Input
Amino acid sequence: MTEASFLSWYPQFESFTPAFALRETVSRANGLFAGMEPEDAEEARRLYTAHRLTLYALAQPESGAGPQAAAAAGKTALQRIASRKVGEVSVTYAENASAGQAAGFADLSETAWGIQLLGLLRLYPGTRYIP
Output
């Protein structure tokens, strides 16, 4: 997969900064997902790239933020909602979102791209995703 082919599928990442993050993620994706049908492997690489770039963007501080905000941005934990209630507003977050998940799969449920990738990987039980 090339950067251009990825961007033709996901043009919303065209102005992704920093540019090296896109380049490195595409390069890493190309080394993953052996043992799948070629079309599925290519889709998995695209989904992986979109997933990783989304996580990267979520961990970035706002532009102009000071060094403390930059340090804190990478430590921000994504929390999944375990339960919710509308009347009298109540939210419960999952204590350990990755508990019980196989290594390498823990973060896939954190983005829409990762969820799609997880579904695709389930079609190939022998294929492993290890970031």
Notes: Residues 3-93+105-121 form one domain. The longest strand covers residues 81-85. The radius of gyration is 17 Å.
